[in-house]
Specification:
The protein is built from three helices and no strands. By secondary structure, the protein is mainly α. The chain has one domain. It starts with a helix and ends in a 13-residue tail after the last helix.
Length: 101
């Protein structure tokens, strides 16, 4: 029994040591060259901002909404005529209550 505890302890300690040893060491400084990142200017003919494009395309936007009430028929109990028919009573709810089993 002691052998099993020794093996388990050794595996846990080894795993914890490996986890701690393989983690990255804190925050690292970015290695970008100065001036390597440049701002990109918009292509010729493109709007300078999203607001300019929205103002131009606003009349083409259409909103269609509807309101309708849908009535569904209640489905018959698929368990009717079986021992489960009494347990599952009507659809969409719990049973009608019965003697506990």
């Amino acid at each position: 029994m002691r052998y099993a505890y020794a093996i388990t302890s050794a595996l846990l300690l080894g795993g914890a040591t490996a986890t701690l040893a393989l983690q990255p060491s804190g925050a690292q400084v970015a290695q970008n060259e100065p001036g390597a990142i440049q701002a990109v200017s918009p292509k010729p003919g493109a709007p300078m901002s999203f607001a300019d494009m929205v103002a131009r395309l606003q009349p083409a936007v259409v909103n269609i909404s509807t309101k309708q009430t849908i009535v569904q028929k209640q489905q018959a109990n698929p368990f009717a005529g079986t021992p489960f028919g009494d347990l599952f009573g009507g659809m969409g709810g719990g049973g009608q209550g019965g003697a506990p089993v």
